[in-house]
């Protein structure tokens, strides 16, 4: 079992990613850390607790991280995509939060220091916490097995024509992280926008109990957003694909690259400039460019359905 930390901003697709991680015997999720992104850090933290409560894993610590990017103001919560509660207003019950909040950076440090094996960090929100971790304890970053990042794109964008949301939210943090001396796998829109999951894929969950129904309702909110933009009812499970790639690297095809982030131009801020012709020395940054879509869907949904019905 790989010791793992998930740094996230739940967020509907973050919630699905968290479920996949706990449903996977290959991963030993030791901590969840939160950051502002899809919604405020107060809400992403509350949502991490709600999810752990829902699946009976309140033994896993949650650390609250950055409430805003390194140098910019936080973007407004994207409630139209994730709901006013960040989890699709789907009736997932509130969870009691511990009296004293743990700090994300401190929790990552303690988790890495106490692990005999190197820890995998799966980062599926803006990269603020990871940049701050490096600023205070670069030795902890050195000890990581790798960082699997959901973010960026070699081509295209979602929040802007050439920018992906997580990178756009805190481009200065992302620029620092892509330059770190650690193995990085970037799972960006090049693959997550291909990994389309349709309502039919989730049919197995319909037979499940209350938790399955709440997860289905949460996901339905996410699909409805896509449909409201003139498309079909479908979801792009961006964050779950990063978790899947950490478990099953064969699901994605990666190439070594150099990644820099545009931090200046207002027109293209948050763009990941992916240079495959001049990769980083030692192949330390790899970018996923293709994905086995049907295998991913099968992997994702069957694991979550089995887990929630146990
Ligand atoms: C990423 O942005 C967020 O809205 C999602 O949770 C995902 O991490 C996709 O661009
Ligand atoms: Ca996310």
From TrEMBL:
Keyword tags: Glycosidase, Hydrolase
One Gene Ontology cellular component annotation held by this UniProt entry: cytosol
Pfam families listed in its UniProt record: IU_nuc_hydro
Keyword set includes Hydrolase: yes
Annotated GO biological process: purine nucleoside catabolic process
Gene Ontology terms, MF aspect: purine nucleosidase activity; uridine nucleosidase activity
Keyword flag Hydrolase: yes
InterPro entries, per database record: I/U_nuclsd_hydro_CS (IPR015910), Inosine/uridine_hydrolase_dom (IPR001910), IUNH (IPR023186), Ribo_hydro-like (IPR036452)
Location of the Inosine/uridine-preferring nucleoside hydrolase domain: 5-297
Highest taxon above the source species: Bacteria
CDD domains recorded: nuc_hydro_IU_UC_XIUA
Membrane-spanning segments: none
PANTHER family listed in its UniProt record: INOSINE-URIDINE PREFERRING NUCLEOSIDE HYDROLASE, URIDINE NUCLEOSIDASE
Name under which the protein is recorded: Nucleoside hydrolase
Organism: Cryobacterium tepidiphilum
């Amino acid at each position: 079992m790989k010791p793992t930390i998930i740094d996230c901003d739940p967020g509907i697709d973050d919630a699905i990613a968290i479920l996949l991680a706990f449903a996977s015997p290959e991963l030993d999720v030791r901590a969840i850390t939160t950051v502002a992104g899809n919604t405020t850090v107060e809400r992403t933290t509350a949502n991490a607790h709600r999810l752990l409560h829902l699946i009976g894993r309140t033994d896993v610590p949650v650390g609250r991280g950055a409430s805003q990017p390194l140098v910019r103001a936080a973007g407004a919560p994207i409630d139209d995509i994730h709901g006013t509660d960040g989890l699709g207003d789907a009736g997932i019950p509130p969870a009691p939060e511990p009296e004293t909040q743990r700090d994300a950076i401190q929790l990552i440090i303690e988790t890495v220091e106490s692990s005999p094996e190197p820890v995998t960090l799966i980062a599926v929100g803006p990269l603020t916490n990871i940049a701050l971790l490096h600023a205070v304890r670069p030795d902890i970053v050195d000890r990581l097995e790798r960082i699997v990042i959901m973010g960026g794109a070699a081509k295209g964008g979602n929040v802007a024509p050439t920018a992906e949301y997580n990178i756009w939210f805190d481009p200065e943090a992302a620029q620092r992280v892509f330059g770190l001396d650690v193995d990085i796998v970037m799972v960006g829109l090049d693959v997550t926008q291909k990994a389309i999951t349709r309502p039919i894929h989730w049919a197995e969950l319909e037979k499940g109990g209350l938790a399955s129904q709440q997860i289905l309702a949460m996901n339905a909110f996410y699909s409805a957003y896509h449909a409201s933009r003139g498309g079909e009812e479908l979801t792009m499970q961006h964050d779950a694909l990063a978790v899947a790639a950490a478990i099953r690297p064969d699901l994605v095809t990666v190439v070594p690259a150099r990644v820099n982030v545009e931090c200046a131009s207002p027109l293209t801020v948050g763009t990941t400039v992916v240079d495959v012709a001049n990769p980083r020395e030692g192949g330390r940054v790899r970018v996923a460019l293709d994905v086995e879509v049907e295998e991913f869907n099968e992997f994702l949904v069957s694991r979550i359905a089995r887990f929630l019905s146990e």
